[in-house]
Design goal:
By secondary structure, the protein is mostly helical. The protein is built from 15 helices and 2 strands.
Amino acid sequence: MTAPPLGKYLASTEKKVRDKAIKNLSVFLSESNDALSKPDMDKLWKGIFYGFWMSDKPLVQQALSVELADLLLSIPQTSSALKFLRGFWEMIVREWNGIDRLRIDKYYMLVRRFVNASFRLLLRTGWDVDVTKEYNDILTTSGGPLCPDIKVPTSLAYHLADVYLEELDKVCATSMSASSHPSPAPLHSLLTPFMLLAAQTPLNLTYKRIKSSLLDPLFSALSVTSHNEEHPSKRARLENVPEEDNAYPSLVTNACFENSSAEGRIDGPILGQKLLKSVFQLASQPSTRDANRRKMYALWKDYGDDDSE
């Protein structure tokens, strides 16, 4: 499939021209059954990137970021949608360091919108195991935002860690309100990219950001229902961990480990322990950096059941 020649219109200095190009692109993507070639995808995303660059008013930026992210869901074939998503992340990683400080906030917003749309795409498939694996591959392989390669901008990974659970919780909330039997989100599968980065990153600050922004809040939320029964020594270890009451309520009440259709919903404390076991197992892998291995073992000990110590 060949993309229509929309690049120059998407990057036009005229808002009306850009708006019309986005609408034409949405129609094209929704009616196409085949994925774009890699060269065409790169050209398309370059045009989209600079079209968003030209948007200079907050309300325009907000509306455009939603419209662009929703393009992902307008593509009927999941495999083609994933290729479109891969094109987005490769473009973002490639162009990120060239974004100036006056424009960076709107690109942070765009990334957040695509994280949300990605979860909605996965939910549309019922959190299909193979689709989720392909999604993780997009994030973690060369060109992805969570690839351990030091050439990937760290601020991008930090932002993902900051917004990941929040956007997943939003999607779970929408799912629960729309269905009496929503598919639970496979937390271990969805966290795998961050777990791998935490194990393999050579940067201490990257590990700390993943732990403070994602792992600590998640394990605290999953264990909140059992806090009243915790052993005093465990409470003492966790007393300095920031925690908000009822954090990620929809996610905590509608999640599983890795297979939504086979497992069904798993209670938070039980799920938390299963996730901690996976942290321990990953820490034991030869590919995990020694410094990170020690930190992951400490994480496992801090949140693990006292009976396992």
